[in-house]
Design a protein that fits this description.
This protein is of the alpha+beta class and 723 residues long. It contains 14 helices and 30 strands.
Amino acid sequence: MGTSIRPTSPRGRLYEVLKARKVEFRFFHAVTRLGLDAKDRRVVEIEVVPQIGQAAMGYEPLIDVGGLPCWPNEPIWDRLDGGKQLREVGADFEGNPNPLDRKATRLRLGTEFDQVVLAIPVGALAPLCGELMERDERFRRGIESAKTVRTQAFQLWLKKSSEQLGWAYGENSVTGCYVEPLDTYCDMTHLIPHELWDRGASVRSIAYFCGVLDDRPGEGADDARRRVRANAVEFLNRDSGVLWPRASKRAGAFDWGVLADPAGARGEKRLESQYWRANVSAWERYVLTPAGLVNERLPSNDSGFDNLVLAGDWTKNGIDGGCVEAAVTSGMQAAGKLTGLKRPITGQSPRWLQPAPGQLPAYVEYGGRATAPGPFLSLKGRLRSFLLEGERTRIEDLVRRTLDEPAGPEVAYRAIGSNVLLMVGGFERVSSMASPFDRWGSVSEIMAAFWVPVIAGRDLGETFLAERLGLAAPYVFVDNPMSYLGGRETYGYAKTMGRFDPPDGIGERQRMEAFGGDFGRDEGAAWRLFLEISADGKKGSASERADSLDGPEALVRQLAPQALERNAKGEVVLPGVRLAASLLDDMLEGRIRQVFLKQFRDAAQGTRACYQSVVEAPIELKRVSLRRSSRDWDVMIRPLDSHPIGQEMGVTSQRAILALDGELDMVVETGVEIGRVAASASPVTVVEGPPHRSAADSIVELIRSMAGRISCELPGLGRFRWW
């Protein structure tokens, strides 16, 4: 690189901040083992190799480049005692944790450390974490399922600008998937003002190239680096002409004279003034994100061990890809776990990516009229409700996946507790209140629904400001196709069909079949028993009370009793949650919202949604009468792969905590979209021609025309690959 020094990432600034806060750094130490307590889930020992002993004491790692603190690509040898000799023997402290064969020291819990932040790249963790992997199956899968690759890169400093080289696009650009094995190009010219070059160097542009370096058995770091140099030469001579048409000689080979070289070498030797690298050690390998393995990643704030948090782009952090943004997000999550502070972390949720909705087309009414628009009036409801215990973490994860992330950046959703409300019964009359559908009659509906109370509001960091109470229903079963189709299409109810015995859903013994089954090549879907509810004992045995609970407040007190105790400002302050006074008024007056994830599977990309939105539909309770049941009730749930309620909510067979018999009338208002994503339509191609030409003729001509255009473009692309 001549007299140039490369500025690096924000690590330098972070180091300076931490050093100013009296954080002690000990460089040139390699962790070789984490040891667990024999009885509990704490890390109690850390074995560390002091790679160069006292020679590293007081080492200052940064170089000042024009006022910018920079981290060099190798140790600053003259700042180390014996550094000259270490450099001459080729000591590689990254490729070999113990190049001088030094004895490891042992750090102990309570003496040298209390908490552990494991920020070592995942490719190097298996040899260090054997005890953790043996103790915890999830931890083992998180490490063993991680896929990493070696990488290669070279960087060029050029005497001509990108435009002078023939680059047809802006400087602020990245090119990917070009040619293997160096398929990525990035214009880094913006770094020139931060670099120290002699005036005679005349650097006008900077280019970075990188790609995967395939594994080769027995290939060491030196051989790999020589291979990277050979790959760089081959790329410049063979492939750079497509990117830089004016950087080639007449014969097509690369013009080495465009490289900046203070030494004044000629031809290919000018490459010696540039920089290339092979990242081959376990610490340097790049982590991939293979399809289907994201959920195997370990969360930064949930390692499975009491005093261990994780940090790095290999964790499950929301971005889940190999990049500095993922590493920073992971570090912030780990810090939140250690400090107990809850602050918004941009990037851990994809909500901010949601685009704004466009204008809606008119709904085309045709065929079998099985759906209608809201609002809907539901009358003469008779329901039996059971308060069940679920698993808090599973419910929180379900709410995050189905509501919080799809809702976008403006609204956040949180689950309340671990209780689930199962409601079984039906309404005698359900009808649309929108004209002219209000004259079409009504339908009776029998249903079984599992409801989860949620709050919607804003994440203020340490406090969540709850503005609305909602009820989410991840599982709803109905007895007729009109309720099934209309609920799904209009609001996004997660409705499926059910068969009820007795037919009205109410009785001392209630059974419901769902259409589904277990997954397997030899399995088949059918009506299968899913839910069975039975009364235990005689009336009055469970409780001598059969209290009458009238009004909306009664329902709120059963779902969230702590939500009714206000402070002086009329608010409720729970741990980490502040309920606005308007929310409480809404609850007590019977204004509660149902919350749904409305989505449609895309026809072409079946694992994608062509439309997705969180929908809130306010419900107005016209009449509510609840009575505590004097019986104990057992709720039996038969597990089915098609309806994984245990996996998603932690709800299993149990005796109900509370049972209520109720009657109610209500209005389900029109829904409100909270964050919406819809696939934009592809441009319509209009093929003009004489009226007598058939559509098939036009399509053939269109394909022929497109093929002609593609064939004209291919020669300009040089080497390419069909995937």
